[in-house]
Amino acid sequence: KQKFVPTLGSDATMIVLEMRSPHDDGGLDLKSYDVMRAHTDSSGHRSGDWVRMKHGIEVLSDEKTPGGLVCLAVHDLLPGASYKFKVAARNDLGQSGWSASS
């Protein structure tokens, strides 16, 4: 089964991730989302490890319901690079598990 690997155009530095929020939020509202990324640059050099993004994440929409649509803009990316992302939700109980990479 082939996975989709988002690839940025030669001048793009942002991508939008669409996903569904967790179906079980533990009874508490979600407060934020954590994003990890791995990338291969335009020359084919792989960055190696997954890196937790500390900035450059913007919530574009969040339906605030279990299983609701969430759209995150991820900024500060390298033009021409291929990326994989993992996302986790966070509330007052802590962080969810990481999603499968996409």
UniProtKB/TrEMBL annotation:
List each copy of the Fibronectin type-III domain by range. 15-101
Tell me where the transmembrane regions lie. none
Q: Which InterPro entries match?
A: FN3_dom (IPR003961), FN3_sf (IPR036116), Ig-like_fold (IPR013783)
Classify the source by domain of life. Eukaryota
Q: What is this protein called?
A: Fibronectin type-III domain-containing protein
